[in-house]
């Protein structure tokens, strides 16, 4: 699965660098969807894995606010692994992409900016069901 295709994209987040520290800002025009929800993963134990699902409609933008982690992505055909480790760069994951988050460094924080509110029915949590879903006609 190629980066910057329809499924996934790396997007730069504007950075304001100053001697007193850096500031990055995500606004509606930074990412290609309207922001409906923001959540974050933190206090992640070593060896822990998150994700393990796809979404039917939801689009998400992931940023490593601190530390680093790997995102394993699968579009039903190909797997791609992307390491996120910069607070001024994020990964757009469109709908219909299976994702697993792993190899969290100690103290890492994963920010998730989402296009929809939380709807459990939007999740596909079974990989075989995901494969059927992406191959549906
Ligand atoms: P889940 O999306 O499975 O976490 P991850 O993909 O990071 O592994 O969500 C974990 C739990 O948190 C699950 O019980 C649903 C709940 N949850 C909410 O209540 N609201 C939310 O916005 C999110 C993202 C999760």
Task: Explain the layout of strands and helices.
Elements: E1 8-12, E2 15-18, E3 21-24, E4 37-41, E5 50-55, E6 60-66, E7 69-74, E8 79-84, E9 89-93, E10 98-102, E11 109-114, E12 123-124, H1 127-134
Antiparallel strand pairs: 1-9, 2-3, 4-11, 5-10, 5-12, 6-9, 6-11, 7-8, 7-10
Domain Sugar 3,4-ketoisomerase QdtA cupin: 7-134
Pfam families: FdtA
Protein name: FdtA/QdtA family cupin domain-containing protein
Keywords:
1 helix, five-stranded antiparallel beta sheet, single chain, mainly beta
Could you describe the 3D structure shown?
The protein has 137 residues and is mainly β. The protein has 1 helix and 12 strands, in the order ββββββββββββα. The strands form 3 sheets. A 5-stranded antiparallel sheet has the order 1-9-6-11-4, with no helix packed on it. A 5-stranded antiparallel sheet has the order 8-7-10-5-12. A two-stranded antiparallel sheet has the order 2-3. Strand 2 (15-18) and strand 3 (21-24) form a beta hairpin. The longest helix is centred in the C-terminal third of the chain and has 8 residues, at 127-134. It is globular, with a radius of gyration of 15 Å. The two termini are 21 Å apart. The mean pLDDT is 96. Thymidine-5'-diphosphate (TYD) is lined by residues 37, 39, 41, 50-51, 118.
